[in-house]
Structure formats: C-alpha cells, structure tokens
Write a structure and sequence with these properties.
Number of helices: 0
Distance between the termini: 39 Å
Length: 114
C-alpha cells in the first residue's frame, strides 16, 4: 500500500522543540524529493520545507528559516522535520508529501501554546 505516515506532533510551549517523522511505504522513496507542508486553522496550506532525493539540497519558507531543519534517511524511508524555537504561529497540521506525486500523509497536529 502506497502511503506516508506522519508522527511526532503534540503540544509544546513557545520556544520548545519537536521532531516530526514521516515514514514512506509502497513506493521507491529514495528517488523522490520530499516536502513538508502545514495548514493552520482558517488558512491555506503552505510549503514549509523541501529536500532533494539525495538530501543534498534543502529549501525553507522564510517564516521557518533558521529554526526548522528538514532531513531524510533513505535507508529508513523516512523524512524528518526538526522544529526549534517554536512560536504560537507555528500551530498547524503538518503534512509530508512526495514531490511530483499525489502521495500525501494524513498529517500530524502541532500546537504551540503556553
């Protein structure tokens, strides 16, 4: 079964950290770039981070640059999003996506609140 499954979301205080994981199955993970998106309540889905298939190039939205890090482990079919210095405005459902395909995960909720 082709799928992406996110995990690692939760409630964290401002200034805290979380690491999201996205495990792929049913397709050749290593040949696809991967992306993390997020969607906050009442807002459109936005691109957060992008990583190439080998992990050699990464790109970030300006709003998370310097705070978030995307990485991947092709041996584990997993892409990660390390989120540091979290702010209340980072509250959203975070989704991973295999770039160039229609494969999306169901999302994991991140809530940043004191």
């Amino acid at each position: 079964q082709v799928q992406l499954v996110e995990s690692g979301g939760g409630l964290v205080q401002p200034g805290g950290s979380l690491r999201l994981s996205c495990v792929a199955s049913g397709f050749v993970f290593s040949i696809y770039p991967m992306r993390w998106y997020r969607q906050a309540p009442g807002k459109e889905r936005e691109l957060v981070a992008h990583i190439t298939s080998a992990g050699s190039v990464t790109n970030y939205a300006d709003s998370v640059k310097g705070r978030f890090t995307i990485s991947r482990d092709n041996a584990k079919n997993t892409v990660y999003l390390q989120m540091n210095s979290l702010k209340p405005e980072d509250t959203a459902v975070y989704y991973c996506q295999s770039y160039g395909t229609s494969i999306w995960g169901k999302g994991t909720l991140v809530t940043v609140s004191s």
